[in-house]
């Protein structure tokens, strides 16, 4: 049969037949590429399906019944990557430092994801368990358990994740250039009589600190502040580590 007589050309296979061979990893990679290019707000399941030459139903078949399932898998893929090659024999402080520095580097390559990772619960899910396991293991070795473990975990994730969410916060999507110029002008015009301390250090702080900036971490590095926060949290956890046995341990045989 001549090639042009093929009754089912590839471009028309958009149902389950087109999904044969499609993997979760391919769906995640395609979704991440779309978010990298167009931003989180412009993400479209229909466009994702078109890019993979399948129907939207096939995306849900692979990843669950809602867009939130896909976002959780994207988050999980990123957090799993930062947990790889962590030496469990390293001191717990070094493990935390390594995994959270890697997390910032990873988010920095996909800054459009930052709002989802830090500020939206739809990125939550069991797909993040590799990261959770690594952090809990380090905190357990530091002596944290029970309520103290929960508080320490939330302090790390909230503090460092929140920092990254702010660092890569998106600028206005419309008239971005005009907004930047207007904001820069307003910062430069800060009244020295009303705000003398702020005005005195404007050359060092302008567009370099949260609140008084018009560019995010893709243009201006906040590595120094992040590493300071990470070290402060780790030092604080070491200083406040509980003293005494882990009474919540599954091997505890006391009554």
Automatic annotation (TrEMBL):
Entry superkingdom: Bacteria
GO molecular function: DNA-binding transcription factor activity; transcription cis-regulatory region binding
Signal peptide: none
Keyword annotations from UniProtKB, A to Z: DNA-binding, Transcription, Transcription regulation
InterPro entries: Homeodomain-like_sf (IPR009057), HTH-type_TetR-like_transc_reg (IPR050109), HTH_TetR (IPR001647), Tet_transcr_reg_TetR-rel_C_sf (IPR036271)
Domain HTH tetR-type residue range list: 21-81
UniProt DNA-binding residue ranges: 44-63
SUPFAM superfamilies listed in its UniProt record: Homeodomain-like, Tetracyclin repressor-like, C-terminal domain
Pfam families according to UniProt: TetR_N
Name of the protein this chain belongs to: TetR/AcrR family transcriptional regulator
Organism: Pseudooceanicola sediminis
């Amino acid at each position: 049969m001549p090639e042009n007589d093929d009754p089912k050309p590839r471009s028309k296979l958009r149902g389950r037949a087109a999904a044969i061979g499609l993997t979760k990893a391919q769906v995640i990679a395609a979704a991440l590429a779309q978010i990298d290019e167009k931003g989180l707000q412009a993400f479209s399941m229909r466009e994702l399906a078109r890019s993979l030459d399948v129907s939207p139903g096939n995306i849900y078949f692979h990843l669950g019944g809602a867009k939130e399932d896909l976002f959780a898998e994207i988050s999980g893929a990123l957090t799993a990557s930062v947990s790889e090659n962590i030496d469990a024999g390293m001191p717990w402080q070094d493990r935390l430092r390594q995994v959270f520095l890697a997390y910032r580097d990873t988010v920095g390559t996909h800054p459009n994801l930052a709002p989802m990772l830090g500020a939206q619960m739809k990125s939550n899910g069991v797909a993040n368990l590799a990261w959770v396991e690594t952090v809990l293991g380090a905190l357990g070795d530091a002596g944290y358990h029970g309520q103290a473990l929960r508080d320490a975990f939330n302090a790390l994730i909230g503090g460092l994740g929140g920092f990254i969410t702010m660092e890569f916060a998106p600028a206005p999507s419309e008239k971005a250039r005009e907004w930047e110029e207007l904001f820069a002008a307003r910062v430069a015009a800060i009244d020295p009589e009303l705000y003398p301390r702020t005005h005195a250090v404007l050359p060092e702080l302008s567009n370099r600190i949260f609140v008084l900036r018009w560019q995010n971490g893709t243009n201006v590095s906040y590595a120094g502040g992040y590493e300071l926060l990470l070290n402060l949290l780790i030092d604080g956890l070491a200083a406040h580590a509980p003293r005494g046995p882990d009474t919540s341990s599954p091997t505890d045989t006391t009554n």
